[in-house]
Amino acid sequence: MNLRPSKPIASIVQQQIVSCDPDTSLLAVSRLMRECRCSSVLISADGQPLGIWTESDAMKLDFQNPSVVDSPISRWMSAPVQTIKASVSMDEAAHYFKGHGIRHLLVTDDQNEPVGILSQSDLVRHQDTEYFLHMNEVQSILPASAPLQISQSEQLATAVTTMRDHQSDCIVITEQQQPVGLLTERDLVRLIAEDKMGNALSEEISKPLICIPANMTLLSARSLMDRRNIRHLGVTDLDGSLIGLISFADILSNIEQAYANRLREALTSQAADLARSEHDLNMAHALIDASMDGIMVTDEQGIIQSVNPAFTILTGYSENEALGQNASLISSGKQSPEFYREMWKQIHRTGTWQGEIWNRRKSGELFPEWLTITAIHDAQHNRTLYAGIFSDITERKKSEEIIENLAYYDPLTRLPNRQLLFDRVDVALATAKRDGNRLALICIDLDHFKRINDSLGHSAGDQVLSEVSKRLQGCIRAGDTISRVGGDELILLLTELDSDDAARRIAQSAIEALKQPVRVEGHELYISASMGCSIYPQDGRDRDTLLKNADIAMYRTKQAGRNGFQLYCADMNERSMRQLKLENRLRIALSEQAFTLHYQPKIDIQRGEMIGVEALLRWQDPELGSIPPDEFIPLAEELGLIGDIGVWVINQACRQCRHWLDEGNRELKISINVSPQQLLRRDLTADISQALQQASIPARLLDLEITESCLIEDADAVADTLHQLRDQGASISMDDFGTGYSSLSLLKRIPLDNLKIDRSFVDGIGQDKNDAELVSTIILMAHNLGLKVIAEGVETPQQLDYLASLNCDQVQGYYFSKPQPATEIPALQHRDQWR
Questions:
Q1: Cα–Cα distance between 374 and 77 in angstroms, integer?
Q2: Cα–Cα 20 to 30 A to 288, which of 48, 382, 787, 801?
Q3: What backbone torsions phi and psi does residue 538 show, to the nearest 5 degrees?
Q4: Which GO MF terms does the UniProt record name (predicted)?
């Protein structure tokens, strides 16, 4: 086998050296380190290294004296710089780190020229010790002493002094003796760079403290550190109690280099013996048979030449079933052809490949494995064989899943925690910036929650939080996030909002969901919440600003009496409060039938006679006053109330028509506006049939006005409904023609009797030549299609004369009459002349 000694450090060294001169301020160096995302800065003058500033050097500082950030870095750097040759092996570098108690080395070439920086973390990430790490658990390297701890109520300077006195690179931060976070050397550099050395400890710790169980493998622990870019993990026992901390340094110092070296020597010797002696070959087979890892040897065509007993145990295939078969026998199909091409490209280039892969047992079950493939050069037979050594890592994957849950989800409510929320907010912001969308953050704080904990205990409080979380989850949409960020504080992330009011509606839904009492341990508890919302982009363009402003809005809600919702923007909040009140009053108006209908005359322009009226909805609210239709009609459509309101209008208009007839007035055709929701989400035919029957009026007295927007969603379904209504005897008019979506092809598919020219075109008659020509064209086209034309919004004699000259059929507008109460219509019928 081609097993080589450990690689030289040149293959893993960070070749970019971040450097500065000795007069650079401590503040500038810290910011440089943060900007370059490195853990060390080389201090040099005239091309000669003088010292090095690392994260551990931050421990030297007096954090009670923030002015220290202006002092030169030469005062605080470590000197002289420890160096190592690029040709040195990784094993030797590991011993050097351990022996000298340092974490960074300047790497030089044979001419003593700097070529890069090697950190302790680089070694842990790149050492070829996956097998050893997989076979050993975290508890095997757990330090004997308890982790260093300090209360978050202490000063930051006190925490740094404690770390320095105990020669520790981190300290656990507690609240009421429970770990809530961690302060590390990296945090200290961040605080220096952000000029926050005088801040309170509770504001600057890394939260949460990510913990793993003591029986987790070292390989899983290292993998988690790599993914999260952290150097410390808390370790818990079976009860979930914190029993220690481990770091990259702990992993490195406990890797048994002697074991790794002996293994390499044995395997190297085995490869040589294969070429020399049949006896040694038999010995090698004995070792392979005793291995707990599955081993499979194939030829260059992938045909299986031999397997060991562990192969059968792991895959379910006996030796007889496997020999002579292609190695794809156990392929899962989950890896792409490109994956295998890259894998074999590396094997042909380097002689080995190692990584995670999915395979399939004989039973069909898929399982993850850690696989090493090594090329074996058989000089005697002039061929190359390939040995695959694999182990089942199912339990390791489960452990990693547990770690992910611990790292990203709140253990009580199973909601995303602060870290996962931040990740999702960052992604949502990037998407919103790209697509030009809005998003909102809503801070939720349960009112007087502390009373529950104090009076009934934390167990009752936990049950309340769990129930509240479930209710709030039912209020958000797919793609939104609700997270618990601490205590009774929850945050909603709402993405892809089409309007600011959408956030307000979701918040109102959340308030309603919390109104029902929560039953806990025989008690009926009433819960309320204070909510505050910030909206991207107007309230902030980054995560921190949006969170801060949502928090400010939430506190405004508390100051206003709790149990409510406020937007950060004052003007927007005022509009939102009116919108909320408008919603509530609209629902009440519908339930109490507080609407009225006014009627605007429609005049036959040639005969000068009133031949019909258009029913127009009016709403006079006792609290809000007169609400214009263009404000409450869109809201009713948005809330899904327009269907019920539309039915009320139809019934009321038909009853009024009957009443006029009973009073001895001549017949008037009543026009009623129909919304898209009525056409598509209700049985409009049945609604109208019932209204006509109850009022005992013929369908010919009913004219239904639709808009072009009715045709957007499902033109065929709309056409079917209109055909049914027309067959009953009602006439159909297209309202606001020319301002929307319809085309001539759609006009041919739906049954129409009239086209109504929108008032915006009529307004331009006598002022805009284009408007006048457009009106002329619409009238000519409608007449050619056999349709009558109604012009609305007529206000001047000039407009009326022009329409008459074009043989427009009907007109309506303020020139003749404003919309009138039903009691005024009979008198208008008896007017002799309308022109």
A1: 45
A2: 382
A3: -70, -30
A4: cyclic-guanylate-specific phosphodiesterase activity
Q: Are residues 472 and 516 in the same domain?
A: yes
What does the alpha-carbon distance between residue 772 and residue 762 come to, in Å, rounded to a whole number?
8
Measured CA distances, 727 to 587, 706, 707, 732 (Å): 34, 17, 20, 11
Q: Are 615 and 819 in contact (CB under 8 A)?
A: no
Could you give the CA distance from residue 675 to residue 26 in angstroms, rounded to a whole number? 68
CA gap 815, 763 in Å, rounded: 12
Residue 767 CB: number of other CB atoms within 10 A? 9
Cα(732)–Cα(738) distance, rounded to whole angstroms?
A: 17
Q: How many CA atoms lie within 13 A of 72 on its CB side?
A: 9
Question: On the CB side of 528, how many CA atoms lie within 13 Å of its CA?
Answer: 10
What CATH number does the domain containing 439 carry? 3.30.70.270
Q: How far apart, in whole angstroms, are the C-alpha atoms of residue 442 and residue 806?
A: 58
H or E stretch at 513: helix 500-513
Residues of the chain short of pLDDT 70, as ranges, are 1-6, 124-125, 127-135, 252-287, 290, 403-406, 570-577, 712-713, 738-746, 832, 835
- Encoded amino acid at 548, one letter: K
Q: How far from 546 is each of 415, 537, 540, CA to CA, in Å?
A: 21, 9, 5
In this prediction, residue 822 carries a pLDDT of 94
Report the CATH number that the domain containing residue 657 is assigned in CATH.
3.20.20.450
- The reply to whether the predicted model has a pTM over 0.85 is no
pLDDT value at residue 361: 93
608 and 742 belong to one structural domain: yes
Rounded Cα distance, 182 and 234, in Å: 9
With tokens 């806990």, the residue in question is 520
- What CATH number is given to the structural domain containing 240? 3.10.580.10
Residue 1: predicted pLDDT: 36
Q: Is 574 a domain residue?
A: no
Sheet of 304-307: strand order equals: 304-307, 294-298, 383-392, 366-378, 352-360
User: What does the angle CA 621 – CA 624 – CA 628 come to, to the nearest 5 degrees?
Assistant: 75
291 and 224, same structural domain?
no
Structure tokens at 708: 């072009």
In what order do the strands lie in the sheet containing 438-446? 481-486, 489-497, 438-446, 529-536, 564-567
Strand partners, 438: 497
Task: Specify the long-range contacts of residues 320-328, CB closer than 8 Å, at least 24 apart.
Answer: 321/362, 322/296, 326/301, 326/302, 327/296, 327/298, 327/302, 327/303, 327/388, 328/302
Q: Final residue of a domain: which of 398, 425, 454?
A: 398
What are the distances in angstroms from CA 30 to CA 70, 162, 287, 833? Answer: 11, 22, 54, 89
Q: Which domain covers residue 329, as residue numbers?
A: 279-398
The enclosing domain of 305 has a CATH number of 3.30.450.20
Structural tokens at position 367: 């399982």
d(CA 145, CA 235): 13
Question: Of 126, 143, 174, which residue sits at a domain end?
Answer: 126
Residue 370, beta-bridge partner list = 356, 391
Paired with 85 in beta bridges are 108
- 577 in a structural domain: no
Please, what's the b/e burial string for 467-497 (b: 16 or more CB within 10 A of its CB; e: otherwise)? Answer: bbbebbeebbeeebbbbbbeebbbbbbbbeb
Please tell me the distance from the alpha carbon of residue 221 to that of residue 34, in angstroms, as a whole number.
25
Residues in the chain: 835
Cα 617 to Cα 595: distance, rounded to the nearest angstrom: 7
Matching residue, tokens 């929560």: 518
At residue 284, the pLDDT reads 58
Answer whether 562's CB lies under 8 Å from 539's CB.
no
| φ, ψ (nearest 5 deg) of residue 23 | -90, -5
Q: Is the dihedral of CA 68, 74, 79, 81 positive or negative?
A: positive
Residue with the two structure tokens 């009853």:
655
